[in-house]
Structure formats: C-alpha cells, structure tokens
Amino acid sequence: MSVVIGWREWFVLPDLGVKQIKAKIDTGARSSAIHAINLEYDERDGVPWVKFQIHPEQRNSRKTVTSEARVIDHRVVTSSGGHRTKRPVIATTFTALGQSWDAEVTLASRDTMGFRMLIGREAIRGRFVVDPGRSFLGGKRKRKKKTSKK
Questions:
Q1: Residue 100's domain is classified under what CATH number?
Q2: Is residue 138 part of a domain?
Q3: Closest by CA position to 91, among listed 16, 21, 27
Q4: Are 55 and 64 in contact (CB under 8 A)?
Q5: pLDDT tens for residues 78-130?
Q6: What domain count does the chain have?
C-alpha cells in the first residue's frame, strides 16, 4: 500500500546539503527539477560533474547552498509552456514523509516559478499516492528558534 502525499511537501536532499525545501508534487510532469544556478562543469576521472548553487527558500535569493553531483545524463525537457531546454540530470537522495530513496532530478532555473523544486511522477511512482486536496502531510516547516536579547 502506498503512502499518501499532499500536493506540496517539505523535502530534504541530504546529498546536496539541503535541509529543507518546499516542493510541488506534479503528476503531470515526468521528471523532477530543482532550481540551480551558476552551473560549473568539471570532469573527475573521465566522469562529468557539475557544481551549482541552490536557493532552497522561495522568494529568498540570499540563502545559498553550494552542491555538486555527478552528471548522469543531459535531457531535453519541455516546460508546461512548450519551451524546450537541454538540462543536466543528477541522481540524489530524496527524504520525505519518513522515507528516503534515490531519484533523478534535472537542474534548471526556476526563479520565476512558484516552487524551487518540482517532484515529477517518476520520482514518486509506486511509493506515494497524491491527495491533491492536502498539503504538508509530512509535517510543517522546521523553523529556527529565535534567541531573545537580554
């Protein structure tokens, strides 16, 4: 039996150093995508790698996480508006709703999008059932406690 997931959830990407990122679950999208900027390509022992920055918080470009990963492919992705772009694909660990699993994600500029991360159907197939009327079934955002000044 599959676990129920809401149309938006908090995810952790431990391999990328992302402690939490709000993601939209989009069963209309085949692949997942994360907002990545300043991509720098490199080769290690003949294997392609990419170094990039992530802004994990919506509407906040000050907080930046620098990550790197092995490039496993480049794919042409068609956006909902019909625009086609070639994107690097990486594999990373996703953690949400008490589960961790490996999935592929494309790196793309999502500055103008409402969510910094989009989870496509390939990443959740056989693992979750989406309830489009619910959100954050894995819990609310973990906020840092403010320290009082005395």
A1: 2.40.70.10
A2: no
A3: 16
A4: yes
A5: 877 788 999 999 999 999 999 999 999 999 988 777 799 999 999 999 999 99
A6: 1
